[in-house]
Design goal:
The structure is a single chain. By secondary structure, this protein is mainly alpha-helical. The chain has two domains: 72 residues, Tyrosine recombinase, N-terminal domain (DNA polymerase, domain 1, Orthogonal Bundle), CATH 1.10.150; 167 residues, hpI Integrase, Chain A (Orthogonal Bundle). The protein has 14 helices and three strands. A hairpin with a 4-residue loop joins strand 1 and strand 2. The model has no long low-confidence stretch (mean pLDDT 85).
Amino acid sequence: MIGELRLRNRSDRTIESYVGAVYRLAKHYKQSPDLLDLEQIRGFLTHLAVDRGLSPSTVNVAFNAIVFLYREVLGRRLDLSGIQRPRTRKKLPKAYAQGDTLRLLEAARGGPPAARVFLLAVYSGGLRLAEACALRWAHLEFERGMLRVDNGKGGKDRYLPLSPVLARELLPRRGPAAPSDPVFPSSHRDRSRPISDATGRRHYNLAVEAAGIGRLGGIHCLRHSYATHQIERGVDINTLSKLMGHSSVKTTMLYLHVAKARPLQAGTPLEDLYPEPGDKGGNP
């Protein structure tokens, strides 16, 4: 299964999620997955959704993993049409206000040495956690002022502006590093390996706690904050969609509901009924 996933250039995170789901399926029934029937698969998905109370998106990942296993690996046309996929609720992204974002980034100064620069990179480019951890010095084109993301979600590459603020923080850290070396190496002996996702999350969690701001969610909130603040700065939705690496602009449009500029401009009809002194129209 891992081989088939790699042949299709699926990301390491997708491979980990798919294999983990199939492992849990086998463990649940204590049988090899190729021996299971449709009702057992239905029962497993129901177990995830009802007994364990997992989110619809997590259950859908398990569904996709099982479909891939049977159709692409085992070559079995298992009819899963009778199994209802969980319906996912469209949630609005959660973004920090600019002031809270600044407090979070500054609070990271008191954490591990690389923490603040790492969080600056995540926020300045709206990077996903895995993309930030995987940054290599070859991805930073200081003279052009560009940052390249290789093999992002969906196997897509993209270019982003390299913030001068981030560049000033990064250059003193480079030293004799080779282009292939990670920008944020592991603290272990093998510094050719980048930091883990867990370390990146720890940098964020410590900074949120030190900043004393209300926690909105995980480190992905910095990516949401980037997108929201870009809209508030006037960046158009199509440009932002490319910067975010979204496959559809519809995904990016969710941030229109979060950015404060448009809702504030819209106002409410109550102002028409109670206009400020000197305004025309409405009844006092």
